[in-house]
Amino acid sequence: MPASEDPVYPATVTSSNIADYPAPDQWFRFIIPIFLHAGIIHIGFNMLLQMTLGREIEQQIGPFRFFLVYFSSGIFGFVLGGNFAATGISSTGASGALFGILALTLLDLLYTWNDRTNPWKDFAFIMLDVVISFILGLLPGLDNFSHIGGFFMGLALGICILHSPNALRKRLDQHEPPYTPVSPYKAGMSDNANSGTVGFIKNPVSFFKGRKPAWWAWWLVRAGSLVFVFIVFILLLNNFYVYRKSCGWCKYLSCLVCPSILLATKFGIVLTGNRMSTTGAM
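Below the sequence we write its predicted structure tokens.
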């Protein structure tokens, strides 16, 4: 494509006015990379995680909640990478979306900690997956910001859409209906037709009637989590499209030794945020 139309690698501009740089206008690049992968090994690992961990979570919380967390985490990861990843780092794959599902698994473990047979063992396996994935994200060509952003979005949305922690539910003597299952033939659907979301839609006044202070406090946490992540998302989009501000050390969270940094050192290229400009030293 012509250099004047490339929002990632614009031609060298001598002016310091950001208005002289082409503005990014391809918003779909935050969505399409979720379906793209960098090879058979990349898609193989992602499919393995999706068919094991992803399958279990979807069966547990239902397709709607899974869809919401999956795509929100994937998009948020790419938005975060677009703001802070080093220049020249390719970013493809469903890793950010899967990290959102991994965050849901961690929340579910914490919510049901006292009811688990061996919670520390489950916690160790989850943290091992997180640590290994973050370490792999430091390798050249991999965008760790997709992992970080997806995990952050998964935690925020998980607080909003998952049931309350079991300890809180027992304290409130609260019996929440099961999630909408993947299979319509699973038991428990008809017994709770007037509970949960359906009950709120049918009669919102009675849904809030008689709630205890602890219930209201937890719902404030849920609402605050949703508002917070929405504000962060808007700020990141605004920074990407308008201000284009970055930090000098953020890129090292995604790549310790990046090809773009090595090239910049060799050919005298100055990295400014997510842009390159030559200094004339060859």
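The two ends are 26 Å apart (CA to CA).
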